[in-house]
């Protein structure tokens, strides 16, 4: 297909597609002539992935570049790709020289150790959780394992469900897309469902009927 058809089918402008090609997110088309290149279903699939990561996952181009590079690396295993995606998601925190931060990070490390979770010491989510602990404590909400237990249980159940969806023997492209959907897109599903469930619980508990 020509780039105009690729634009129509992907819902992206020709200028946007050319930008993705320049940034290395999308492979160039097959050259047919000096003024024409042809594109195939793989280009369309890649554009849909990029669009989902940008629009729903709200990832910047730099983060998507890291993920696409890992996707293209055929020697990279799924766990390595997962780690790359997690790093791209961030946050990329420069830990402050602050006793509250250090205490929160120690609490996070202790929690992960107590749960027996196999998590890299460089996982950005450690810093994300530590940041949240600091903010909660400053608002007067100390963190206890009792408070965390429902979240831990839900997170563990979801992770097992998501990893179980990555079927053995499936084509790599399909498996990779399923991994990225679980890591990036379903996180937005979780956020949305949590807010909807909170509104429902509030209406039932505090509403006027």
Which stretches are poorly predicted, pLDDT < 50 over at least 5 residues? Answer: none
| Helix content percent band | 55-70%
As a percent range, the share of strand residues is under 5%
Regarding quaternary structure, what we see is single chain
Shape: elongated
Topology order in helix (H) and strand (E) letters:
HHEEHHHHHHH
Describe this structure in words.
By secondary structure, this protein is mostly helical. The protein has nine helices and two strands. It has helices spanning 3-10, 14-22, 41-55, 61-72, 78-89, 99-115, 124-138, 145-164, 172-206; strands at 30-33, 36-38. Strands 1-2 form a two-stranded antiparallel ribbon. Strand 1 and strand 2 form a beta hairpin. The chain is elongated and about 65 Å long. The model has no long low-confidence stretch (mean pLDDT 89).
